[in-house]
Design a protein that fits this description.
Blueprint: H1 3-24, E1 35-40, E2 65-72, E3 77-80, E4 83-86, E5 99-108, E6 113-124, E7 132-133, E8 137-143, E9 151-153, E10 158-159, E11 169-174, E12 187-189, E13 197-199, E14 210-219, E15 229-239, E16 246-248, E17 255-256, E18 259-260, E19 264-270, E20 287-289, E21 297-300, H2 309-312, E22 321-324, E23 331-332, E24 335-341, E25 349-352, E26 356-360, E27 381-384, E28 397-401, E29 406-408, E30 414-416, E31 430-439, E32 452-459, E33 467-468, E34 474-477, E35 483-487, E36 490-491, E37 503-509, E38 517-519, E39 525-528, E40 537-545, E41 551-561, E42 575-581, E43 589-592, E44 604-609, E45 616-618, E46 624-627, E47 638-646, E48 652-662, E49 670-671, E50 675-681, E51 688-691, E52 694-695, E53 705-710, E54 715-717, E55 723-726, E56 737-746, E57 753-763, E58 771-772, E59 776-782, E60 789-792, E61 795-796, E62 806-810, E63 816-818, E64 824-827, E65 838-845, E66 857-864, E67 872-873, E68 891-894, E69 897-898, E70 912-914, H3 919-922, E71 923-925, E72 931-934, E73 949-951
Parallel strand pairs: 1-6, 8-15, 19-24, 26-32, 34-41, 42-48, 50-57, 59-66
Antiparallel strand pairs: 2-5, 3-4, 5-6, 7-10, 9-13, 11-14, 12-13, 14-15, 16-20, 17-18, 21-22, 22-23, 25-27, 28-31, 29-30, 31-32, 33-36, 35-39, 37-40, 38-39, 40-41, 43-46, 44-47, 45-46, 47-48, 49-52, 51-55, 53-56, 54-55, 56-57, 58-61, 60-64, 62-65, 63-64, 65-66, 67-69, 68-72, 70-73, 71-72
């Protein structure tokens, strides 16, 4: 009877443990019912991208839990520990795969329980698809008369498989091949997101009737460098519009944009002679429509001189004014000159305004010749003809000149006809030639004037720079004082009579020698005015300038050669002392050495020995020693430099410079260990913990160290020795260890410091008393069993090494015993529920006999009743006499029994009739009340006596 409660207790304990594990392992750490992760789609065959978060947020550590993929919408992922990794590339744009759903199984290894966790992996888009135009190319037609700003094409369309900003597209145009058909200068897309193509420059069918516009489609990826672009071509056909006037065309004219510029026709008639149809030169009048529309052309006169021209001449649709027959009514005009030739009785007379003229040499072609040197009045030639008068005098003349250097222009002025007319020798300064005037279209041998002789003087212009005579290299002995070097000479072709003097100057001298030389402005004599040393070279740029400001330059090379040398430079001291701080910046001057040279030659200084690591430099000219690189006194504290002074002849002397490096506070104190660990027992004030030591490479107060502690008030440190001690007694149970920071600081005004970490571990001492975790324990134990475990109690000892001895301080010690080590209470002998149903024990520990209420605990023990006592009938029924005719159900008697067990069901009594005789057939015993009643008709049997056996 006792085994069942034990098994029930074990089952309950097992269930509780399993429930606790299920709550801690395999749960989603975020508290959500679904895990949501993100991953970027693959670029090409990429599979190394990671999820965010990188691990599944499932509580538990592998291998305490086992994870696996149960189901998935697509076989993209494998699981590795708590990480999901791609097995193959994943493309978000392929079928718009925006997410993958998984079922992750998680098995708790300890309990062997398993659950499935839904996981959704969102696929993030990368910009891996360029926009694609829906058509390979586009085409449209637009009139050349379309105004600027007009939208001519609206059908650009693209698709981009990417999403969000990666899939947004903007349109733009790009330069093409820069030919006439490149549409980039003429069309634009002003609204990039709409892609509407507009006109941005006036179109001209006659210039180009087709354009090819390169159109770009670019996505709007957030990272500009990752944006992708596609291109297409929009072919734009330009339709001709009525925008051009008709144009007169003949071979000899100057064409601009397909039309003659100032077209002019000429015809001749003879005075008094009826000519009929005129012969028009240079060819018959012809006009055409410059548009491709080819509208009809008609001609008419507009006006003319004299005013009565229309009484003598008329025109049909083959000459005169040309006018289109289109709605635009565009037109153009040409001039028709009809010369009426008189009978040539008198030749033309040519009259110049002066017989001599003047013009500057090198004047451009077309420059007018003047009658005075100042250039105020032009030289004009006029023609008179006695055969012509009034309006008949409108006759054209050509001029024949016997030189190519000059001509007469259409206005009758004498002008320059050749460029670069030069009067400077050996060229002439005066031109003499003849001029004839001849009537245009005159008959051979007719219409020419008598020749007129003219002279033109070329005015002198300052158009030549002085020319310096080549200068040979000068070898100049070394020395000082003023001495002659060379003479500079120059000539000027413009200065014919020597009245324009040349000015000499020095423009530049190499090797910083400008102050060492000078030149006489008038004579060109060059002198050295300062000391020069052997081996030096100077390039002197000299300049010759004429009064008009024109100049030329030449180089005078001067090489300084050695003079007599009596001895080398000498230092006044054999040894020098200097000091420098190790913190001195590079190029900081330390000391300047000066040597004397008997010849006053230039001295060159150098360091020949002792310059460790190249820490110092010396100025070769001034002799100043300076810091070349950062000094470190802790590495080198003193130097002995040997300095050499030499002249250009390599004669020299040396001296020694002793340099002492002074200390700066540039080193931090450094502890012997970056981290210290010490141990100390609890409960001791002023206990020695340990000693730390730091070292500072600096000297003096820069290297004097003091120590300090931070991180706890429970310790102190000797500022000089670094010894650490406790300030008060420490308690292991309150804190097992302490973390401190020790600082070592030097004594410099600009102090530096170093730090180290200290861990102080507290050694436990047995100084704590055990206390019970509960004040009352409740337990139950079945009766009738000895050595039965009742309960185990627990007292906690705060010491690191627990020491608890349990005992029963009060209670039925004859019935119960307690294990002093484990706290387990057992029965010594069987208990009897019927004698006593409960017990109370007062338990304690040998280590804690104090007044603390937690020093003891009460164990309340309930005895579990068992059915161990048989029922007992309280009375024995006497024989009963009945008539065999009694009705069925008649109560014969009542039997009563009692049971000494104290609890149900052991104390509950049930009655029944037993036996193999006939009595059970005719009599019934009520199972609860014990009533015996007649069950069947007694007359069925001949028996007169029945024995009813009943059982309780």
């Amino acid at each position: 009877m006792m085994a069942a409660p034990e098994r029930l207790l074990l089952l309950l304990s097992s269930f509780w443990l399993l429930l606790c594990l299920c709550k801690s392992q395999c749960e989603i750490e975020t508290g959500e019912s679904v895990i949501i992760m993100d991953i970027l789609e693959s670029r090409g065959n990429q599979i190394n991208q990671t999820t965010v978060p990188t691990e599944l947020p499932i509580r538990g550590f592998v291998p305490q839990i086992e994870l696996g993929i149960q189901t998935a919408t697509a076989d993209y992922f494998a699981i590795d520990g708590k990480r999901l990794r791609l097995k193959r590339p994943i493309d978000r744009d392929d079928g718009k795969l925006t997410m993958v759903r998984l079922q992750i199984s998680c098995r708790d290894v300890a309990s062997d329980l398993q659950r499935n966790i839904p996981v959704v992996i969102r696929i993030g888009d990368i910009n891996d698809n360029p926009p694609l135009f829906k058509a390979r190319s586009y085409e449209t037609t637009v009139s050349e008369l379309t105004p600027i700003g007009t939208t001519i094409f609206r059908d650009l369309s693209t698709t981009d498989a990417d999403s969000d900003s990666n899939g947004l597209v903007e349109y733009s145009t790009a330069p093409g091949d820069s030919t006439e058909k490149d549409g980039y200068p003429y069309f634009s897309i002003n609204l990039p997101h709409q892609g509407l193509v507009t006109v941005q420059r006036t179109l001209d069918y006659e210039r180009s009737n087709i354009y090819y516009l390169t159109v770009l489609a670019t996505d709007k990826a957030t990272d500009v460098s990752q944006r992708l672009t596609s291109t297409t071509t929009l072919t734009i056909h330009v339709a001709d519009g009525d925008d051009l006037d008709p144009a007169f065309i003949y071979d000899a004219c100057t064409l601009v944009n397909g039309a003659c510029v100032n077209p002019e026709y000429r015809a001749h008639v003879t005075s008094g002679v009826m000519s009929g149809l005129l012969k028009v030169l240079p060819e018959p009048i012809l006009a055409k429509d410059r548009d491709s529309l080819n509208s009809a052309i008609r001609y008419s006169f507009v006006n003319g001189t004299p005013s009565i021209y229309n009484e003598y001449f008329e025109i049909d649709p083959t000459s005169g004014r040309a006018e289109e027959m289109s709605d635009g009514r565009r037109f153009t005009t040409a001039k028709l000159l009809i010369d009426v030739e008189a009978v040539d009785n008198h030749p033309p007379v040519l009259t110049p305004s002066a017989m001599e003229g003047y013009v500057n040499e090198n004047s451009p072609i077309g420059t007018t010749v003047t009658v005075d040197k100042e250039g105020k009045e032009p030289l004009e030639l006029k023609v008179a003809d006695a055969d012509l008068s009034g309006e008949e005098g409108l006759v054209s003349y050509s001029y024949e000149v016997t030189t190519n250097s000059f001509r007469v222009n259409s206005d009758g002025y004498l002008v320059v006809n050749e460029a670069n007319l030069d009067r400077d020798p050996p060229n002439p300064s005066k031109y003499t030639f003849q001029v004839i005037a001849r009537q245009v279209d005159s008959l051979p041998g007719k219409g020419a004037s008598a020749p007129v002789a003219l002279s033109v003087h070329l005015n002198n212009v300052n158009d030549n720079s002085p020319v310096i005579v080549p200068l040979p290299t000068v070898r100049l002995p070394a020395g000082d004082g003023i001495r002659r070097v060379a003479k500079v000479e120059a000539t000027d072709a413009d200065d014919i009579d020597g009245s324009e003097p040349i000015v000499y100057s020095i423009y530049h001298v190499s090797n910083e020698g400008l102050s060492k030389f000078r030149i006489d402005r008038s004579t060109g004599n060059v002198q050295v005015v300062d000391k020069v040393s052997a081996g030096q070279q100077y390039s002197i740029t000299v300049q010759a300038t004429d009064p008009g400001g024109r100049f030329s330059q030449a180089i005078l090379d001067v090489v300084v050669i050695a003079g007599p040398n009596a001895g080398g430079p000498v230092f006044p001291q054999d040894r020098y002392d200097a000091q420098v701080s190790e913190g001195a910046a590079a190029k900081s001057a330390i000391v300047t050495l000066t040597a004397e040279d008997p010849e006053k030659d230039e001295i060159t200084y150098s360091i020949t020995e002792g310059n460790i690591n190249g820490d110092f430099a010396i100025d070769p000219k001034s002799g100043t020693i300076s810091v070349a690189r950062r000094l470190d006194r802790e590495e080198v504290s003193a130097y002995a430099l040997v300095v050499k002074a030499s002249d250009p002849s390599n004669l020299f002397s040396t001296t020694t410079v002793d340099i002492r490096v002074t200390d700066i506070n540039d080193q931090n104190p450094i502890f012997q260990q970056p981290e210290y660990t010490f141990r100390v027992e609890e409960g001791q004030a002023d206990a020695y913990v340990g000693t730390v030591q730091a070292r500072d490479e600096d000297i003096g107060m820069n290297g004097e160290i003091t120590y300090s502690l931070s991180g706890s008030n429970d310790f102190r440190i000797d500022s000089q020795s670094g010894e650490i001690r406790t300030v008060r007694a420490l308690d292991f149970e309150s804190q097992h260890s302490h973390r401190l920071m020790v600082m070592a600081r030097d004594s410099a005004p600009d102090s530096r410091f170093g730090t180290a970490a200290i861990t102080v571990l507290i050694n436990d001492v047995q100084d704590e008393k055990p206390l019970f975790e509960k004040s009352v324990y409740e337990a139950s134990v079945p009766e009738n069993k000895a050595n039965q475990v009742v309960i185990q109690v627990k007292a906690r000892d705060p010491d690191s090494v627990s020491s608890v001895t349990y005992l029963i301080k009060d209670g039925a010690e004859d019935l119960f015993e307690m294990d002093a080590v484990t706290g387990i209470i057992r029965t010594l002998k069987p208990l009897d529920y019927e004698k006593r149903a409960s017990y109370s024990l007062l338990i304690g520990t040998m280590e804690n006999d104090g007044p603390d209420p937690r020093a003891t605990a009460t164990v309340a023990i309930s005895v579990i009743d068992e059915n161990d006592v048989a029922p007992v009938f309280t009375s024995v029924p006497l024989p009963i006499r009945l008539q065999d005719t009694v009705p069925l159900g008649t109560v014969v008697t009542t039997v009563v029994a009692s049971d000494a067990d104290g609890t149900a069901p052991g104390s509950e009594i049930r009655y029944e009739a037993t036996g193999k005789e006939k009595a059970p057939t005719y009599f019934l015993v009520d199972a609860v009340s014990g009533l015996i009643s007649v069950k069947d008709d007694l007359r069925k049997e001949p028996d007169s006596e029945y024995r009813v056996r009943h059982f309780a």
